[in-house]
């Protein structure tokens, strides 16, 4: 037999419910904390969501946060935060900082005059300095962006659940929904915990996590449905264990390839998209976990119709019947 | 396990097409130069040796569509502007005043004297002397309204006339406001487009967003401030009757009048009638010229309606002063010597030749009909964009290598086939991006790398299934067949759910995020196509060629 790298041995018989108290209970606990955490620590919203300006500076001279702050102080810009950016892809004498300034008006983005003043004040202390990116979002737009971001996440969740409900049974849709909320909220919780910048690209990441997590869950559900038809008398719990064992190799393999690609991005993709890639990477990990430990527990709790061989009124899985004659 | 000949051929054609149409992207700078040269020649540029050399960089018979790079990769400026559509209402209502005054004066016997009262922007309030004459006044005012010409407003009129005691109130109807807003935005779009085009950068994006916003993206421009300066330069030209000339900057202008500073005479102000006789919008041409003394000037010509108004006014007011106002400053206030028929004239002031040329350009391009406020602006320098491209390339190469090594280690020969299919998948993504002219952004690159990881999922599902069938004692032919068949429902279901996320993101996202949504959605679709058709073709072809007794997946 040729060599094969196998993360999972051929015939696993792991009881995934054995530690349900720990895994499912733990999930619920972490989920609860993640939902509550943003209310205490708040999210580190980027300018997309609260308005303001970010200026990226680059220089051959080392970043001196204190000096930058002093240079900007006379301009009375309100809340200014300055952070040095580190990245393995930078050259040796490439020093980058990110300056964030609070929104200056009620509606509009920053004016060119103010930007000119800021750039002037900074180049006065470091003539080598350049400004590779300046972004400014007015509070009017940022309010709308929050709204459309929330709508996007809710709409995607709802649409996915409806699809699962149509293709499977409502219990599966509920299971999928809980798994999705679990994955998205815990990711948000991590952003609150570590105060990582939360901007529009993170919403894109959350939607990707939704898609990835449901992808994983659906593969498990698809096999579960097939096994339910195959083993009509086996207890639901055992069918589920069998299903997860059967799909385990695929689940880990796919997570593996996706993570390989993501980690490569995380390391080499540059600092501009690091937060975004981090969110997706974390989401893939938690999405894999939730399709093994969360989604099906809900289905088990709710119980599910066992006889799939007759056509269902929801227009159920017609194609599957071809393979049930065993 | 047979694939019909037509399907085989179609799949091969698809693979080859993907590679051919993706190929220009591998030679991005050359193809870009070639395309620029072709575009320049098509516009009628002279065939200089440089242009011809650029054109020769890429053969004409090969596809030359390449992926559009987003602002975050190419560098450039992005602005989101809101047009203050209500500005137009004011000018609109002011415009009714002379007409209304004239019409009411004809009915002086019943209405009495009329006077303009302070009015909100979208209303014109007029007080009349005889309250008993109000019915007549309303009737007269209603005569000014016209039917609205728009799809939704058919059968409705543009003015709503009401009265309140001795006040006659003319108000724009909602239908008319909507129609006006629409025209304002269209006009603003057109003017912004013309101004941006004058700088001649590559593929600017100028789009309407929502009811009253304009999105402007210009690659290659230095900063958003520069872009703002370019489109924000208004040249609002109006011609007003002069009431008097004064040196008192605090002089009370009186109702319906304006106090305007002179541009070149220090400390001189003019009191003007607020309602202009003619405006720059009625200009059809403006060009730099010289006056009779040889000083630089701008010659202009009005359209027929402007020419008529201008002619009438000059005929009735010979000897009066007439102010030419540009952006709220009086450029000059010449005396009307004679009746100016024909609607052309000349603006003299203390211009330099360059100023006269610029003024002519601005006048030709027209003024923005309403002011714009800038809600969002982003500038990305070209170096940062290039850094992002480089980082993306390295990440993609490393990611691809890691994924195929892992696949080959896990599935042996089948892993090799899947890796080739993955390469074709990548080619398909770039081919589709090039053909539909979609924009690749930095998050888009992330989506492509992410797709690499996720695209093999379909293959993994199939291979795992084949393994299982083999373990269950099926022969190789049957196992491969069942593997592809049974994995299909999981592949389709799981990818449709991901696609739902991508589509929603596309409709709700903007800029880079939209780029991510497009890349993700395209990647999902191509990955299903490659897994279901391409990998299958590879496996079946290999199997038919080798005819192994047993297979190891």
Structure description:
The complex is a heterodimer of chains A (326) and B (553). Chain A has 326 residues and is of the alpha+beta class. Chain A folds into 2 domains: 20-44 and 142-323, Multidrug efflux transporter AcrB transmembrane fold (Up-down Bundle), CATH 1.20.1640.10; 52-137, Alpha-Beta Plaits. In chain A, 60% of the residues lie in helices and 9% in strands. Chain A has a 4-stranded antiparallel β-sheet. Chain A is elongated, with a radius of gyration of 25 Å. Residues 312-326 of chain A have low confidence and may be disordered. With 553 residues, chain B is of the alpha+beta class. A 5-stranded mixed β-barrel of chain B has the order 9-11-10-16-15. Chain B has a 4-stranded antiparallel β-sheet with strand order 7-8-2-18. The chains are: A alpha+beta (326), B alpha+beta (553). Chains A and B meet through helix 4, strand 4, helix 5, helix 7 and helix 8 of A and helix 9, strand 18, helix 12, helix 13 and helix 14 of B.
Looking at this protein, list some descriptive labels.
heterodimer; A: 326 residues; alpha+beta; Multidrug efflux transporter AcrB transmembrane fold; Alpha-Beta Plaits; 2 domains; four-stranded antiparallel sheet; 60% helix; disordered C terminus; B: 553 residues; Gyrase A, domain 2; 3 domains; five-stranded mixed barrel; 19 strands; 53% helix
Global structural class of chain A: alpha+beta
- Determine the strand fraction of chain A and express it as a percent band: 5-15%
CATH level 1 name of the largest domain in chain B = Mainly Alpha
Structural class of chain B: alpha+beta
């Amino acid at each position: 037999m040729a060599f094969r790298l196998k993360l999972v041995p051929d015939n696993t018989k792991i009881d995934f419910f054995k530690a349900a108290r720990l895994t499912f209970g733990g999930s619920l606990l972490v989920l609860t904390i993640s939902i509550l955490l943003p209310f205490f620590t708040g999210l580190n919203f980027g300018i997309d969501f609260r308005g303001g300006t970010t200026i990226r500076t680059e220089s051959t001279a080392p970043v001196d946060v204190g000096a930058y702050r002093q240079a900007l102080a006379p301009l009375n810009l309100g809340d200014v935060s300055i952070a040095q950016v580190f990245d393995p892809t930078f050259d040796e004498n490439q020093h980058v900082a990110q300056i964030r300034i609070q929104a200056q008006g009620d509606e509009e983005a920053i004016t060119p005059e103010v930007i000119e003043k800021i750039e002037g004040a900074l180049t006065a202390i470091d003539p080598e300095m350049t400004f590779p990116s300046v972004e400014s979002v007015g509070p009017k737009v940022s309010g709308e962006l929050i709204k459309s971001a929330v709508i996007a996440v809710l709409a995607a969740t709802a649409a996915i659940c409806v699809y699962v409900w149509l293709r499977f049974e409502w219990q599966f849709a509920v299971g999928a929904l809980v798994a999705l909320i679990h994955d998205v909220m815990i990711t948000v919780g991590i952003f609150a915990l570590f105060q990582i910048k939360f901007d529009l690209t993170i919403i894109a990441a959350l939607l990707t996590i939704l898609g990835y997590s449901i992808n994983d869950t659906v593969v498990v559900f698809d096999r579960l449905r097939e096994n339910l038809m195959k083993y009509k008398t086996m207890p639901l719990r055992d069918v589920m264990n069998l299903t997860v064992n059967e799909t385990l190799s695929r689940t880990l393999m796919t997570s593996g390839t996706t993570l390989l690609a993501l980690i490569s991005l995380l390391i080499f993709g540059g600092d501009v998209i690091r937060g975004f890639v981090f969110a997706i990477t974390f989401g893939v990990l938690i999405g894999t976990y939730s399709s093994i430990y969360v989604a099906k527990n809900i289905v088990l709790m709710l119980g599910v119709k066992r006889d799939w061989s007759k056509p269902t009124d929801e227009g159920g899985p017609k194609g599957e019947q071809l393979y049930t004659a065993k | 396990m047979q694939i019909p000949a037509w399907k085989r051929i179609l799949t091969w054609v698809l693979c080859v097409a993907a590679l051919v149409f993706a190929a220009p992207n591998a030679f991005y700078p050359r193809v870009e130069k070639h395309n620029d040269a072709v575009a320049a020649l098509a516009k009628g540029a002279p065939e200089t040796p440089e242009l011809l050399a650029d054109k020769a960089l890429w053969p004409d018979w090969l596809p030359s569509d390449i992926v559009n790079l987003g602002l975050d990769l190419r560098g450039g400026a992005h602005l989101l502007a809101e047009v203050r559509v209500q500005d137009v209402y004011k000018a609109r209502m002011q415009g009714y005043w002379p007409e209304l005054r004239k019409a009411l004066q004809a009915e002086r016997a019943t209405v009495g004297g009329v006077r303009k009262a302070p009015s909100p922007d979208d209303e014109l309030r007029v007080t009349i002397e005889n309250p008993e004459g109000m019915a007549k006044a309303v009737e007269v005012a209603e005569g000014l309204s016209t039917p609205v010409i728009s799809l939704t407003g058919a059968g409705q009129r543009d003015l709503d006339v009401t009265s309140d005691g001795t006040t006659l109130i003319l108000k724009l109807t909602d239908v008319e406001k909507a129609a006006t807003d629409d025209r304002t935005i269209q006009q603003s779009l057109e003017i912004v487009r013309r101004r941006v085009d004058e700088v001649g950068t590559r593929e600017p994006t100028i789009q309407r967003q929502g009811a009253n916003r304009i999105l402007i993206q210009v690659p290659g421009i230095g900063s958003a401030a520069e872009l703002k300066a370019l489109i924000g330069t208004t040249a609002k030209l109006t011609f007003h009757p002069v009431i008097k000339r004064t040196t008192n900057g605090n002089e009370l202008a009186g109702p319906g009048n304006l106090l305007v500073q002179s541009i070149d005479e220090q400390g001189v102000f003019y009191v003007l009638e607020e309602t202009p006789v003619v405006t720059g919008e009625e200009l059809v041409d403006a060009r730099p010229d010289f006056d009779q003394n040889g000083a630089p000037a701008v010659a202009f010509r009005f359209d027929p309606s402007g020419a008529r108004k201008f002619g009438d006014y000059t005929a009735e007011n010979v000897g009066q002063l007439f102010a030419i106002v540009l952006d709220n400053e009086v450029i000059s206030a010449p005396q009307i010597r004679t009746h100016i028929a024909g609607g052309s004239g000349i603006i003299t002031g203390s211009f330099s030749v360059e100023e006269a040329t610029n003024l002519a350009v601005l006048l030709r391009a027209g003024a923005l009909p309403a002011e714009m406020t800038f809600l969002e602006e982003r500038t990305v320098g070209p170096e940062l964009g290039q850094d992002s491209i480089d980082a993306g390339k390295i990440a993609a190469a490393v990611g691809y290598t890691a994924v195929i090594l892992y696949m080959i280690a896990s599935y042996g020969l089948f892993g090799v086939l899947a890796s080739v299919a993955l390469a074709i998948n990548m080619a398909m993504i770039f081919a589709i991006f090039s053909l539909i002219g979609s924009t690749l952004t930095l998050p888009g690159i992330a989506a492509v790398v992410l797709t690499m990881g996720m695209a093999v999922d379909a293959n993994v599902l199939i291979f795992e299934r084949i393994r299982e069938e083999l373990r269950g004692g099926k022969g190789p032919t049957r196992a491969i067949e069942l593997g592809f068949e049974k994995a299909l429902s999981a592949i389709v279901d799981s990818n449709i759910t991901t696609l739902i996320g991508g589509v929603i993101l596309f409709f709700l996202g903007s800029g880079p995020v939209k780029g991510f949504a497009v890349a993700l959605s395209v990647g999902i679709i191509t990955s299903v196509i490659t897994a279901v058709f391409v990998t299958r073709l590879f496996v079946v072809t290999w199997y038919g060629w080798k005819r192994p007794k047993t297979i190891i997946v």
